[in-house]
Fold:
Amino acid sequence: MLNPALPLYADELERTLLPLERATQLPGQAFTDPAVLAWEQVNFFARGWICAGHVAQVSERGGFLRIETGGESVIVVGDEDGLPRAFLNTCRHRGAQLVTEPEGRLRRLQCPYHAWSYGFDGALRNAPFTEGLTDFDPACFALHEVRLAVVEGLVLLDLSGEAPPPQDHIGDLARHMAAYRLSELRRAQQIVYAVGANWKAQFAVEGNFPRYVFNAAGADPGGVFNWDITSRLKEIRKPTIIFAGEEDQGNPVAMNKLLADNIPGAQLRVVKDVGHFYQLEKPTEFNQELRQFINRVAP
Structure:
């Protein structure tokens, strides 16, 4: 893949690195110019570590997820031991995609075109009508493996195979990630939003969307405080809530203290140097109660 030039001026980028009170945002062209996206595909998505998903999605044999990134389709699948492996989502015979669904569970990894099948270690297991071919060696037709690492429960991929060690990529962020115990999260429900925006813009505006995260290890009902519902919080049945966050974060601490004070049996803890999350004794029941509660009080 050719490396296109980045069509942005150096001084525009340098201004984004200034101290916060003097810094500017990226120029609008960074969000709208197809040439910028082409540069990002080569230099960002295809040459460094990217997050594909959570290890729980591929922790069992045949559990898989598929992502499109850096001009490639990649499948991450749990092998026979439940360990994640990543491969280009392309059959070695005629190049057909092996998997088209975004995620799920596979009994076997088989090409829909000519039924070549592969083990979850990427090895070619069966190739119909090749028995009489001269010098056909199945070992030469394994799936192309993609470099993979798991950091604090997140599955990272490196398409180039040449990125620095994942520990160098994560850096000091690792200790903050560890505080959230991300590897213990289990998804209870998923809601997919199709947002017609550049990927950088999605990160920029995410905080302005109502957030109701229903993970099996935690929930963040931040938006409920937009309404005068304090007196009705007692309707929620006794979860155990652990709040983590510095006291000087101010308003989030006050709001979560309000939540803890008004839900029977709730507990509030403050931990230094991390954001905030909730850990629940009966997360599934709490998620159901919380969703019903929000539906009742929402305008």
